[in-house]
Amino acid sequence: MSNIKSVAVSYDPAELTDEELVERAKVELFHITKAYEALMARYQGTLFNVCARYLGNERDADDICQEIMLKVLYGLKKFEGKSKFKTWLYSITYNECITQYRKERRKKRLMDALSLNMPEDAEAVEPDYKEKNGLDRWLAYVNPIDKEILVLRFVAELEFQEIADIMRLGLSATKMRYKRAIDRLRENFSDRVEV
User: Fold this and answer.
1) Range from 3-12, 102-111, 148-157, 167-176 that averages highest in pLDDT
2) In the predicted model, what is the mean pLDDT of the chain?
3) Please, are residues 150 and 193 in contact by the beta-carbon 8 Å criterion?
4) How many helices (H) and strands (E) does the chain have?
5) Can you give the residue ranges of every domain in the chain?
6) CATH 3.40.50.80 applies to domain 129-194
7) Mind listing the pLDDT tens digit for each residue in 153-166?
8) What pTM was computed for the model?
9) How many CA atoms lie within 13 A of 75 on its CB side?
């Protein structure tokens, strides 16, 4: 164990690639978390933004981010490196967000069925275009699949092949769905958006 510690503290994580940090983390974990923490620090902000945009609120996003980080912690030793670490991380993120989204949707349907939903005379609240900026205001008006592709492309800044791998789609299907999502935004908001 002292050998692991001497190897682990003899490097600067900022100078290593994701792949090098993954290899270090596989050796270090669970005694030392330096490489793992460096990996998570690199992606923490983007990871949170992706989750917040998928789920629509920061509270759920924070909870899901914690779940994702735990899954990465316990799954890192099994990560085979067949894809980039970033792709693997966002694949976990995608799956966790989809699971949470489905739970929330089931909960809403249950509340509606039990008549615990909002009274009919209550006003529906629409996002105010003047208050919200950027991608968030548009994501409220696209379907879930379009939202997933746009978030992975613009927030996670993934390549189309990485998005295709995460969503388990073909590359051409991914590009076509992306194009359709952009076209829908242009059609619906042509006077307000420049994509």
Assistant:
1) 167-176
2) 79
3) no
4) 9, 0
5) 11-114, 129-194
6) no
7) 888 888 999 999 98
8) 0.63
9) 14
